[in-house]
UniProtKB/TrEMBL annotation:
It comes from Pigmentiphaga soli. This is Iron-containing alcohol dehydrogenase. Residues 190-399 form the Fe-containing alcohol dehydrogenase-like C-terminal domain. Residues 12-179 form the Alcohol dehydrogenase iron-type/glycerol dehydrogenase GldA domain. PROSITE patterns: ADH_IRON_1. Pfam families: ADH_Fe_C (PF25137), Fe-ADH (PF00465). PANTHER family: ALCOHOL DEHYDROGENASE, ALCOHOL DEHYDROGENASE 4. Its cofactor is Fe cation.
Amino acid sequence: MSTASFGVTRSPRLILFGHGQRFALGRTAVALGRRALLCTDPRFGAAPELGALVDNLREAGVEARVYDGTEAELPAAGIHACVDAMRGFDPEVVVGVGGGSCMDMAKLVSLLLAHDGPLDRYYGELNVPGPVRPVIALPTTSGTGSEVTPVAVLADDARDLKVGVSTPYLIPHAAICDPDLTTSCPPRLTAYSAADALTHAIESFTAVRREPTAALAGERVFVGKNALSDAYALSAIGAIARWLPRALADGADGQARAGLMLGALHAGLAFGAAGTAAAHAIQYPVGALTHTAHAVGVAQLMPYVMAYNRPACTDEFAQIARAMNVAGDDPERLADAAIDAVAALLDGAGVPRTLAELGLPQDRIGWVAAQSMLAARLVTNNPRPLDERTMHAIVAAAFRGDRAWRG
C-alpha cells in the first residue's frame, strides 16, 4: 500500500462551524448529560458571551457551573484545583471555552473525573485506559486546534517543562467553532494564534512518511504524513495566508475571522493525525527557559526548521508555496520561495525573528539541543533525520536569525 492511498482522520463526532453556532451548545450538551462544567479563563469569564452560553445551557435543561481560573500554559496545579472544586458537582459533560489552555483544561479535567490521578500517569501516548467524560470545545481564538485534537498540553512544574497527554480518548465529543467568538481577540493574539496554526499545518504536511500497515493507526496516535491530513494541511496553509493580513487590518472583518477559524480547524485536523515535529520539540525547552508562549516559540522556529528540512521536502515545500499563492513552475525555486513566504507572513504577524529576541541565553543553545532530542515522538516525526549535532545547528541558526541557512 502506498502512502498516497493511506489516510487517517481523528475528529470529534460533531463539528459545527459558522457564525452563531455557539448557540447550539445547549442542545448539544443536553444529549450528553444534565450537569455541565464550563472551563474558561478570567478574561472570558467576565465577558457577556459567557453568560449567554450559560443561559443557553440552562434553557436546554442543563445545570451549569463555571470554573474561570484557567491559567496560560496550563499549570498542573490548576487542573487539580478545578477537579477538586467540581468533583462534588460531578459534571456529566465538560465544556472548554477559550484558547488552547481552556480547551486542554476541559480535556484533562474530564480525564481526572473519569480516572484516578495523578496526571503524570498519563503523560505520553496511549496511556489513558478508557473513555473520559464527554467534552464540548468552543474555541475563542483561531490557533491551537485543540477543539479537534487527541492531545492536551500542560506545564509540569516538577519537570519545568511542557508535557503532553496523547490519546484518541481526549478528542472532544463536539467542536463548536463560531467565528463571532474571535472578534474580540486583540491583534497580537490574533497574529500569534494564526502563526501557531500555520506551524501545525506545515509540520503535519511535511511529517515523515511511515509504512502504512494496518496496525499503524492503532499503535500510534500521530501516524505521520498521509493523504487525509495533507488535504487539511494545505487548506489550512492557504486560508491562513489569505485571511490573516485582513484579520489584522480589521478585527471586525467577519469573513476574515471565519477564514482564519476554518484554517485553524483544518490545521488541527491535520496535525491531530499526522503530528508535529522539530519546531515543537525545540520549543519545549526554549519555552521552559524563556517563559514565552508556545505559539510564539514554534512560529519563530518554523522558518529555520524548514531550512533544515528543505533537502527532504522539495515537492511539499513547492505545494506550500502554491497554497500561499506564490507564482512559478520550477519546484526547486518554489520550495525555496515557500520558506521566504512563511518567514514574510510571520514577520507581518510580529513574530520575533530570533531566539535571542525571545530571551534565550547563547550559552544555553547546547542544552536546548540536547533537551529537544528527548522529545522522541516529535524528533522521529521530522522528515529529515535529526541528531544532537544537527539539532544544535538549527537552534544556533534560529538564535542568530540566519534565515539564509539551508541546513
